[in-house]
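Page 37, top half.
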Amino acid sequence: PMSFWLMKSDPAECSIDDLAAAPRQTVPWFGVRNYQARNFMRDDMQAGDGVLFYHSSCPEPGVAGLAEVASRAYPDATQFDPRSPYHDAKSTREKPRWLLVDVKLRRKTALLPLKRMRELPQLQTMLLLRPGSRLSITPVTEAEWHAVVELLDAPGTTRWSGCAAAATGGDVRLTGTSSAYLDAVIDKLMDTGCEITSERDAI
């Protein structure tokens, strides 16, 4: 069965935009140096698992997009590189101490800030929100996963990935594949004073 994970990344090192720009929109999740987080990758992760891509160690931490595990665990090459900040002199190629998995982008979203997550009752069971929780990788329940995805897709949070908008001067033209998305986008744009032409034959 599919599992779900929250994986933290410092955006100064690898942001959701870096993931989107990477070859095949896939990156190796290098640099994990905590045994419990390593064991999650080694023992529990499998290709296809869902990932909440979380920006950490930054001014506004939070979930920045959705991704998936794209490989089984394999040795993290940075542990063998003396020039790397993740070098481990006690680890050998014969007995590597640290592992990683590849992570592939599903989609970038608007940020769901940590501050907002702390306010929501449906997320209070998340390990991320427990006092003293510092693990860079934590399991997420199916209910927590769906709750976060619903929030990412909610009006006011999402990037409206189901719609396309083109603006010239003060005019905005919208087409979309979802009536619900289109209605929400129209409401949001009308709040800013835009004049809207809705072409519902495009839905």
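Page 37, bottom half:
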Amino acid sequence: TYSPFELCTILQEQSVLACSDGGATSEAGSFGWILSTQDGERIAWCNGAAPRTVSSSFRSEGYGTLSLLCFFTRIAEFCNIDLASIDLLVGTDSKSLITRINTERQRMTVHPNDTLVSDWDITNEIQLRLQAFAYNVHIEHVLGHQDLDTQYEDLSLMAQLNVDADKLASQYMLDHPRTTSRDPRLTNNLRQSALPQAVPHPT
């Protein structure tokens, strides 16, 4: 286990890669991510809830990527260290998330109607995090669940990290089979309506 300052030293001196994953049921959403050096040493990991109004794997995958990006923001702030020199490769098995990120990255202006797209709050936050970073972040697709037909030790490092992230997300789901259906307002989502939860009326 490394201290935050030791982690920052590793990030400044070595190339790192990470993978995030997410899952959803009708009652819960969860995510997991893991960070590794190029030689395969796992140096940080996290899992947690993916709050939602309507469960979707897309939203859970998005929370995983966002949580990972927030980790880099916070550790740099905590250690008061400039991470501008790092080169980060992030893997996800969600092609739809990568497509949305790439599409939104090309837009010069966010229009009011853009905010009506499902899960805009998550993808907008990801965009703003990426724009704020002084270092390079590359997001690539990794095929999920490759361990179903290939031994874990025979997988590429990124594929192994995908399996690890999936296990982290699944473990949180097992430990917390019901998660909040209230979406917290994210930092750059400046306006969000909070309607009272429906109360069933007696028949």
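Margin note: The mean pLDDT is 88.
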